[in-house]
Protein: Putative TonB-dependent receptor, plug
Amino acid sequence: MIHRRMSRAALAAGVAALAFAPVPVQAQSAQNLGTMVISANRTETEANKVGSSVTVITAEEIEKRQAATLEDVLEDVPGLYVYSNGNAQNNTRFKLRGFDSGRVLVLVDGVKIDNQASQMYDRPYNHLQAADIERVEVLRGNQSSLYGSDAIGGVISITTKSGRNSSKILEGVATAEVGSFVTRRGSVSAWGRYGDVYYKAAGAGLATHGDDNRPMVDPDEADGSRSVNYDFKVGVDALKDVGILDLLNVEATYNTMRGDAEYDSATSGMAGNPATADTEGFLHQETDTARIQVNAKMFDGRLDNTFSASRMDAYVVARSDRYSGSANRYWGDLEKYEYQGILRPFDGHSLVFGADQERDHFRTKASSSQNAALVNSSVFGDYAVDVTDNLTLSAGLRRYSHDTFGETTTYRTTASYRVPETGTRLHGSYGTGFKAPTLVQALYNRETAVANGFDETLNPEESRGYDVGVEQSLLGDRLVTDVTFFNNRMTDAIESRGPSGNRYYVNIGSVRNMGFETSADFDVTDEVRLSGTYTYTQSRDNATGLQIDQTPVHQGAMRVAYAPKAVEGFDTWMRMRAAGKSFDTPSTKIGRKEVGGYATFDLGADYEIDKSFSVYGRVENLLDKTYGQMYGFENAGFGAYTGVRAKF
Structure:
């Protein structure tokens, strides 16, 4: 304990000295009118022409936030609630407008980061580090017509760094960081271009002893974790200006994530559970993804054709004290083949169309061995048109052919209307969604549902919903605000029931997610910038009238950034995150429990010594607030971190 206190004091002093040293970074303008969005229509679209609600986070913003993991990157996004049981890199989940992680599609370089094996415990993106991320787009609302069954609640699209637009043979960045809880983090990313060939190679590692997240059960027992990421990308512009062909590009990517994490039982030591001590569970995850694509641009940019093939492999090993250290093992693989065309017949018109097929395979070696696969095929199209200089409309649909549930159709429409005279933009979307039961859900039901008096057959989830919002620019675009109302109803929602080890799934009826999200960015002066978000979410089971677990009604964040002109290369920031009370149901024995609200404060600073070298530091949970986001668990207390960044 003495060593921990000394480390805390030393690190806090170092960060405080850096934060208040007389040393800026130019405050960014409140609105970047040149921002392009890709995920909203599956093609580059000007942000002010997008009808759906989308948030774009750039590499520069990720660097300024000193984000270590994807969780850190997403924490301030409106409508998105990120929560965990307090274990670093383990059991982090999120709710997007009330939809949980399993109903939101996560893509890394176009590859779906989820399959049946990874669904058994925690999603593999728990171990995805932020060092190599170039851009994140969070697309909210029904997106099944654009992206398929898994996008019933939205899409999180992650793009890693690339050398495609580089003008150098070699450039890159390296970081090293240490901090509280014996945390070590390091990364190296290198990319470049030589003639028509470009590449990227990157590696990142993060390890921590973690904090004690179950003090009520086993004081001073921390749960640590470690993860390693490797990313490779290579491409070539094979042909240029040959007949009707403008450009033929071939690109291949490979990403791998390895993670180990200690974890605690969600119920040990709680009332209604006979266990009196903390369990010592261990989780090992391996995730590999690969993708190759061929892109042919034709007819002076009027037609783009992209053919791609991708694969994700996941391997999960879980050991729990409950089973005397025995291991449950899960394997999963997901193959996808896709064609996408983008036709631009006239200026202001674009048609995205294509077809894809997915094959999902899953097998286990746990309490019983199981092996199953399914195939899902679909065709899709989305048409966008600038009706006038200030009005953009889009409409799209997708037709599915599912192994089990046959054929169905989803659709989406969007609108964006701009009033330049007042700096006002109206935007909105309406769409439907479809999500079939996963193999995991079906396999669990074959074993346990009938024994508990339920039919083993599950119906697919279906949804329909809309959002409508107003974006307003004021003070010469120094202040930009947005208020968006959303309303979505999901029928035949699939939820788990029963104790751990005897889990089964049922269709609970309908769930309504409705509320509003607000955001504001304000360049107060050339040195001071304020930004904030607030989300109000009513997520209710219509049968019981109860708020869905882990969905606070109120949540928000505020950030103040200060970049004094008097000291070039220095900037500092403070952030507050807050959430109201929520609920959690650890088990049927324990029942439904209230989880208290919280507010935490973080402080950070960054000093660019020269164009190639920076030092930085931050304090997380500045006031050492004791709080939790899941019942019976506590999130990390006060932590201080410092690091260096070198660009070459």
Observations:
- The domain at 2-647 is CATH 2.40.170.20 (Maltoporin; Chain A).
- The two ends are 40 Å apart (CA to CA).
- The chain is about 5% helix and 55% strand.
